[in-house]
Amino acid sequence: MALSFVEGSEMVLKYPCYGLINIKQIAKYMLDSKYTPIKVINISPSRMGFISYLSLPINENVIWSFTFIFPNEVLSLCGVLRKRSLQAKGYIYFIEWIEADQSTGAILLQKLSNLEYQLKYEFEKAVRGYLHTMELVK
Fold it and tell me: Residue 49: which of 88, 96, 90 has the closest Cα?
């Protein structure tokens, strides 16, 4: 990918993570648009990269709301789109969380890191079980 972060605490996701995005505010006008799904590709406490099939406006006056649903918890953060790159499978966007949501961005990063670890563990456990079964069959 052409765009990436230079921040030390960035995490590139190995397993898909999906969220929802909608417009929260344009200039001084609050609104609540329809949600559309996104696929997160990398994240840091202050920024996030994601893929969408929609062509979204890059504009300082548009505040976007991002919602992530976890078991027992829903995290919502607001940010401003900073970059867009057209790819074969849609657009890659990079956003910066608004300053008030950067601590929530750190919480989201930690949750996704924990999920990545759990998924890796479960995958490796399944592979070990398969290999063990194959050895028994021989």
Answer: 96
Under 8 Å between Cβ of 134 and 128: no
pLDDT tens, position by position, 66-85:
999 888 888 889 999 999 99
**pLDDT tens for each residue of 99-138:** 877 777 778 878 888 877 877 777 777 777 777 777 777 6
Half-sphere exposure of 100 (CA within 13 A, CB side): 5
Which residues, including other chains, have CB under 8 Å from residue 43's CB and lie 6 or more apart? 10, 11, 13, 49, 105, 108, 109, 112
Q: How many residues can be counted in the chain? A: 138
How would you classify the pairing of strands 73-87 and 90-97? antiparallel
Nearest to 109 by CA among 16, 10, 21: 10
Please say if the pLDDT value at position 91 is more than 90.
Answer: yes
